[in-house]
Structures are given as structure tokens and as C-alpha cells.
Amino acid sequence: MVICRECGSENNSGSRFCSHCGEKLTEETLEELESENISSEQRNKKKLIYIMPAAVLIVIAAALGFFYNHAKQVNQTVLEDKKKAEELALDGAYKEAEKILDKASTQRPDYQALQRSLSTLHSVQGMEDDLDTVEKLIEENELDKALEELAHVNKQMRDQGNRLVVTLTPRLNQLDSRITVGKINNEVKELTKIDELADKLNTLSGLDLEEAARAREKITEKIVSISTKQAEEAMTEKNYNEAIASVDEGLQYVINHEKLLQLKERVEQEKKAFEQEKQDRMERAMEQQAMEEMKNRREAIEVLGISASKDEFGDVTIEGEVQSEATSIISSIEITYDILNEDDEVLESDTAQVYPMYLNPEDKGSFEQIYYDFEKEEKISVEVTNVQWFVE
Amino acid sequence: MKRAWLTSSILTVLVLMAGIGVFIYIQQQVPSQLAASSVLDEPVPEEEEEAVTKNTQEIIYESQKLVVQLELDNGTIGSGFLYNNKGDVITNAHVVANAEDVKVINVDSKEMDGKVIGASRSTDVAVVRVPELEGEEPLPIIEEEDTELLTEVLALGSPLGLQNTVTRGEISGLERNFELEPFDYEDVYQISAPISPGNSGGPLISAETGEVIGINSAKLGDESIGFSIPVLDILPMVKQWSKSPMKELPEYPELNAGTDASNEQTDADQATYLIQYFYESVNQGDFVTAYSLLANSWQKNKTFEEFREGYYNTLSVSIDNIVADPEGEEVNVTCVISTEETVDGEIEMKKYKLTYTLGYENDQMMILSGEGEEID
Fold first, then answer.
1. Which residue in the set B4, B296, B305 is minimally distant from A49, CB to CB?
2. For residue B261, what pLDDT is reported?
3. What is the pTM of this model?
4. Where do the domains of chain B lie, and which CATH numbers do they carry?
5. In angstroms, how far is CA A99 from the centroid of its own chain?
6. Average pLDDT rounded to a whole number, residues A4-12
7. Cis bond leading into B182, ω under 30°?
8. Which domain holds residue A328?
9. Of A238, A239, A250, A338, most Cβ neighbours within 10 A?
10. pLDDT at B262 > cutoff 50
11. Is A114 close to B244, i.e. CB distance below 8 A?
């Protein structure tokens, strides 16, 4: 290859003239060119010596850059994973959080925060298991044990007091409420007093649980039945105000309960009927007493018979019999009578004492009086003019 | 030439070594750039509790607006305080007993109408709804029962009708229990502030926070001892009434005037008196009165006529000896009586030993049953 000195174009090495500009291609030029070629080759070789470290430098720099980026990237993912895991954990998805944290910690085993998060997570998972045990105990109605266990977990939670542990608090509270409700349910069976039951109602009113609502219902039912029973017992003993008080006490907790309201009305009606009945009876008694008294005063004595008879000596005997028609004892009965002759002229008025002194109701008594002055009279008759007595 | 090669190799090795160095550096340095700490392990941020301590004057001023005076047609006076924004006023049941309509007077002497919407038979608490107070901010109520002895308190109310009286005192006793028919006072506070009738039903307020602690209540005897029912004990029940007002209010027959006298006597005294009265009536021939002392069940089995016949031959009765023996709610009375009876017109003296059982029927003591026999 020959290069024209004039125009610099390339010509075949045997050519004498430039195929481009026509200038003569001299030996000299050829030589010159050849020597130039040699020196550039030498220079190239020299350059090559330095290219190697440079190339290595570049490659290593690139590799390091890549590696750095990668490491940064891993950091980033680890951070993101950590954040995600923490969010999950705080939301209660402990298993997923654990998986992510495990993965992250294989990438960055020396990152302390990951280890701490993991250990916190593990201890919280342990507590969750404990809470599961508590729940099982509650379901088996082993409430005292459940409460003990719960107190234990609660203490652990308090000791740790970190943000993750706090996420268990709602569950802990719920279990605590369930134990309270369960205990109340157990106790309610044995309670027979309204105020004791009402105490339990007060306790339940702070709990927002389905079980609590059911327990409340059970207690109110029991209050209704107790207050009904008490009221009915009091009613049979005619203690109506006590009965109403019982119903009212029930109504203060089970407001406007239909059956209790009806019962109250019934008690009131019965009370009224009772009082009316009593009043009627007493009125009747009073009327009767008044009538009896009138009778005892006015016509307590019936004179069954009175007669006058004369014996062979001319003595006249007046005798008679009376019966008490009174309703109480009467005494000192005196019969006043007229002794008449055949012309119905009054010969004498006299009074006789009835024997015995006291006459019980329906008892009979008699009286007798003898006169010696009526020998001359042919015929003697006698007529009762008055009867006197005392009512005892 | 050879020298150049040597230099080149050394350079390359240097570069490589530097690269490895940087690599190791990166490997160690970059992970340790992870500085964020474990969120899960962080302690719970503590909520700062603001202890609002108001000045006593402020508390009194704020509270007084929400304390009202209650007046009944029969002249009963009491106090009450607003506890929710429905216009519901808590007071004592004995203040509004047996009444439905209540006159409510606020601090500005404005008169309003109130209706009793709930009252307890067993605890001395009632709620009066005042439509005109609806929407009004109520008095704050203590949230947790942690009242201790010697807590400084203010008792608000209208003692003896003197409106808006404030009395300062302290809690001088806890968990006092007593009974004041028909109410049970359970676990109530004893306070050093005196409570007079018009004060009853007013709030007991913490002098520090202005929160309601209790409902001032009964006073025992003439000494100036006040009592206060812990508000948290009755709040759930009271809230129920506000939610669903009672259609029918409880009755308090024992709080009607004029029935107190009989309560002063013991049952045994009452029973003894009744038997004496019974025989006195028989002796007088007032059988109606005697008969009226018999209980319903006895009367039903024995008409007046039959009862009367039993005394046909009795001239007089007198009690020689009488002993009353309470047993549960009943009283057994044993007595020996002498009678004069007429038998065949003759008076005979006889002695009987009788045993009666007395008990309450429709709130009255009655002779429930009796039997006896002649003794020689």
C-alpha cells in the first residue's frame, strides 16, 4: 500500500503514479511511510501496556458500581419488607410478618432491628397462643383458671409494653369481659335477690359483647320471675303493697315489662276487691249488730204464757214462762202485770222477777207469785203490761 | 519494554486490590446503613394526661347553672342536677315519691315543668325529664370510682328552699350502709357537709375537677351528717330510664304522710295491743270491732253471726296475762283470760288459755288465727 504524498489517497503498492491525482509516487514516500508505520506500531505496543490496568479499572469500577447499587437495592427492599412486616404485624397478621422478616433477615442477618422485631413477634405469638389457651378454658367454663392465665399474660404484656404487644390488648380485654360474663352467668343461677341480680346488670352494662347482651337478657328474665313470684306470694298473704313494691322493684330494672305491668294492675284490682269485700263484710256485721241490739233492747223476751190459778184455800198463784229471744245475755227480767176480776177491773198491778237471774239466748225462765187476798173473787185473770230486762 | 509491562501488571493488581477493598467496604458499609430501628419493639407512646384542675370559683359557677330546685304540689322541696343532654335531671326518689309532675326551678329562678320518668323502689334515686333543658350541656360525671377519704367536695342544692347554696366539705366515710324505709343505702359516702331536706338530690362535686361524685341524700338524726350515693352505682339504671321512660311509676305508700306513727311500735307491742283491744271490745259487747280485727282468711271461715254466737253466754272477759313472741314476720301471742259465763242461769267463772297468731295483711296487723282451751 502506497499513500500519495500529494493528496493522501491510497494506491496499490506497485503503482508509480497516484491513481487519484496523477502525482508521481516516489520510493521515498514509500519508505517514509513504512518507517512511520513502524513507529506507530511501537507506540501502539506501549499504549497496550497501560490499557490492561485501565480496562481492569473500568471493569472493576463498573462491577463495584453495580454491586453498590445492588447492595443499596437490597437495603431498600429490606427496609420496605421491614416496614411491610411491621405493618402486617401491627395489624395482627403475625405469620405473614414473620415470613417476610425471616426472608429479610437472611438478606441482612446483621441488621439488629430485624432480629428485635422477630423476637418481639415471637414473644407476642407466644402470648397469642396463651390467649388461645385462655379462650379454650373459657369455653370449657374453667373461668378461675382462665382468669389466672389471663393475669399471667397481662403481666407479660405489661412488662414488655411495646407497640406490638399493645395490639393484643383488645383481645385481652375481650377475653376478660368474656370471663366476667361467664362468671356472672354461673353466679346468676344461685342468686335469688333482685338487688344482687341488679348488681350484675350494672357490671354487664360496661361490656360491649354479644355474650353480655345475652347474659343481660337472662338476668332480666330472672328478675321478672323473682319479682313475679314475690308479688304472688305477697298477694296470697294479702300484703298487696308489698306485692306492688316487688313488682315496682322489678320494673325499675326491666322497664315497662308488659307482664309485670299487667301483674301490677292485677294486684291493684285484687287489693281493691279485698278492701271492698272486707268493707262489705264489716258493713253487714255492723247492720246485724245494730239490728240485734235493737231487738235485744225492744223485744228480747217473749212471754210464753202467764196464768192465774186459785187453789182450794183460795190462794191465787200467778205463774208464767218466758224465753229469751235476745242474742246476748239478759238479766234481771221483771214482768209487770195486772190482775183482773171477772169484770176486767184491775185488782192489783204487780211485778215479778224471772228466775234465773241470767238468761242466755234461747234459754227459758219462769216466774211465780202467790196472792192471798183474792178469796172473794170468782174469777181471776192476768195480763202482762210490761217486761223489763237488762242486756249484758 | 519489559519495565513497562511490569508497571502495567503492578497497576492492574493494585486496581484489582483496590476493587476488592471497595467491594468489601461496600459489603460491610451498605448493610450497616440500615439504621431504622424496630418499630414493633418501640415502647407505646404514652398519652399525656392533662389533669384539668379548675379553680373552685369556676367550678361552682359552671355547676350551679346545672343544678335545679324541685318542688312538688304538696310542698316537698329538693334538688337535682342535669346529667345528660336530653334534659334529664337526677334527684332522690323520696323527693319526687308518689308524684308525676314536678316544678323545676333553675338558677335564674326560671320555672319549668318536669315529669318523673323513672324512680327506684330500693335505691333513693329518680329521674325527672325537663323538656326545656333539652340540649343543655350536662354536668360532667366522674368516670372511675376512685374516691378516697378526705377528698374535697362541694355539695350543691337548695337547702330549706334557699336556692344555690354551696357547702364545702370532704368525704369523711366510705361504704356506709343503712336503711331508711323504703330505701336501702348501700356503700354510700358519708360527707362532712351537712345535707338538709332541700339539699336532697343535689350533686356532690369534686372540688378539684368539678365532676359529679354522688347524689346527696338522707340525713340521719339531727346531727349534721350528710350522705351521698355514689353516682356510678346508679348510672346504668338511670341511663335505662332515660332510654325508655317508665310507663308506670313505682308507688311509695310508706312515704305518704300519717303512716309513720305505727312504725314506731314494735310488732310485739302492736300484737299485744291488738289482743287487748280485741277482748276489750268483746267485753263491751262491741263485736263488730272485735270481728274487724280478724284476718280475712278467718273472717271468710267464720261469719259475723257465728263469731257472735261464740260469745252468747259470755258475761265478761278480762285478760290475766299476755305474752307476745315475735316469730319471723308474725307474732304469737299467748294469753290467759278469765270469763264470767252464764250456765243455766248461773254465773260461772272460767279461765282459758289462748294462743293467737298475728301478722300483717294489706299493711295492717291482723289476728290471723287462734285457738284455746279451758284450764282448771
1. B4
2. 44
3. 0.71
4. 56-251 (2.40.10.120), 263-375 (3.10.450.50)
5. 44
6. 72
7. yes
8. 299-391
9. A250
10. no
11. no
